[in-house]
Amino acid sequence: MKIDMHVHAKERSSCSIASEKEHIEKAIEFGLDAIIFTDHNKLVPLDHLKELNKKYSPFKIFGGIEVRMKDNGEDVLILGIHDKLIEEREWTYPELYKFVRERNGYIAKAHPYRYKEYIEIDIENYIPDALEIHSTNIGKDDTKLISNLAQKLNCNLISNSDAHNSKDIGIYYNELESTPKNEKELIEILKSGKYTCGYCPERVYKFNKNVAEREEIIRNLIKEGKNKEYYHKLTGNWEGEFDRVLIGKSYII
């Protein structure tokens, strides 16, 4: 079973340009068997998940959430929690970690080292179930750091799209050794590490070609003394691309 565990839909994530329908239909076209909607600080209602699964069966749709820490801006992926409190509270990592563990949920660090060479949450004392090592928001220059940290912590790795555009969904995915019947079985498989990380080489190549063109524009704008707001106004592209190039990193994956 191929599953993309990090997807944002515009119904709940303002930064996404793709609807649930667009994501699901593209995921099916690209050969995935399941996706997880992990919108920013917003859960997918369980009744709505049930409707989507009925409509698109046998394709599976799960609901998670991406939570941003209030004190440092780090992002964490959570599965298996449907308590509205998780989207209503402002969390520190230790508080969220305890909340998830008490409810037998799943917790993973999203895009580590994205804008810096260190992680601002206490990941060594509160070890997550996994670190995300590949996505459209993780440059290949960070993968060694992530791999080394996973070995140090003895935790699993996951690979996802972090898709905000349906053309990116499933560019990276996780291939499970078995097909879970429900969310509980999915979490058991993920925690046990009974899966492999996969990707589509042709799509990665095309993605990187587009990134290289955008980052060349950014480097030229930096030489001209322009800022990220100017870049966004000029191109309509996400300002975070500018920030990453500015600190000497790349979104080449």
Average pLDDT figure: 97
> What is the SS-derived class?
alpha/beta
Rg (CA only): 18 Å
- Specify the oligomeric state: single chain
The shape, in one word, is globular
Which CATH C-level class of the largest domain is it? Alpha Beta
For the record, the CATH architecture of the largest domain stands as Alpha-Beta Barrel
Q: What is the fold named in CATH at topology level of the largest domain?
A: TIM Barrel
The H/E string reads: EHEHEEHHEEHEEHEHHH
CATH superfamily of the largest domain: Metal-dependent hydrolases
End-to-end CA span: 23 Å
How many domains make up the coordinates?
2
Q: Percent of residues in beta strands?
A: 15-25%
Uncertain residue segments: none
Number of helices: 9
- Walk across the major sheet and give the strand order: 7-6-5-4-3-2-1-8-9
Approximate helicity band: 25-40%
Biggest sheet descriptor: 9 strands, mixed
DSSP strand count: 9
Highlighted features:
253 residues, alpha/beta, TIM Barrel, 2 domains, 9-stranded mixed β-sheet, 9 helices
Task: Give a structural overview.
With 253 residues, the protein is of the alpha/beta class. The protein folds into two domains: 2-199, TIM Barrel (Alpha-Beta Barrel); 205-246. The chain is built from nine helices and nine strands. It has a nine-stranded mixed beta sheet with strand order 7-6-5-4-3-2-1-8-9. Helix 2 (46-56) links the parallel strand 2 (34-37) and strand 3 (60-68). Helix 7 packs across helix 9 (239-246). It starts with a strand and ends in a 7-residue tail after the last helix.
